[in-house]
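LOG
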Amino acid sequence: MSRPAPGVHPALPATEQDALDWFDTERDCLLTLLRWTADQDWNEDAWRIAWSMDEMLRRRGHVHDRVRVWESAVFAAERLGAADVQCLAYGRLAHAHDAAGDHAAALPARRRALALAAHLHDRGGQAQTHRTSAFPSRAGVEAARARLDASPARPDA
């Protein structure tokens, strides 16, 4: 994204909690901004807004917003034609789908990220994509634990 105009000095939050509170207040506005930048074909800004929002959405547990944000970023990256940005966006989309518990939707995004990383000869990108797919999401672990707790006790063999 562009630097602020001369004379504009964005306020920085004093604490991490201030940043989280600000994000909670402005989340809907930021999501609208992302959609608007995509509609305006401002693709560079759109994927950067998605990237900027990702950590806060993750921290706040907005898994479905993360999916929508990275879907927008993938769309913007495709229109840019920048393979490196596409690789990042597809990898983050796969991670967002996994966090939302939709592993079937994560697979094609992960495959695309891996293909792009291979095309770019980006071994680090390939490793990162594999690494993020190797760790189960908290929601996935909790769902597995609930299924285990609900299953009838098995007698010892």
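LOG (cont.) second protein
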Amino acid sequence: MTTDKAEELLAEVKLRRTRQRVDILTALINAKAPVNQAQIMESLGKSSPNKVTIYRVLESLIETGIVHQAYIQDRCAYYELGHNCTAQQCHPHFTCISCKETRCMKDVELPMAKSSDGFVIKHQQVRLEGLCPNCSQAVEGSTGNQAGTTNG
């Protein structure tokens, strides 16, 4: 059960297993992609703590490394479990410019960026944008249909 997994993760980092922490961590475990505060609140329904409590819990989970802020989109932070990332690098995320869905690309490996201008890079997060498989097929399909119409 995911509640058990949440409690186990909290115990590993020696955080008290409060109802709010367990609930929010369980919501993140159940999420199929990074989620924002409003999505966490929605997934918890009527038992959801308020906005401030969610942010405070997320901050405590980030400090321990259980959770990390995956990216910011439209001035809104998205969070996910931190187990697929290292202290220096997070796996890339791909956002479709058509349907706006964001997916984790855990099997894509990118080298750490290097700077020759004196910048010291401590952490790397990469967000890629383009068309997801469904949207790219729709574009190819509509282009193919138009071409067929003009040729026929």
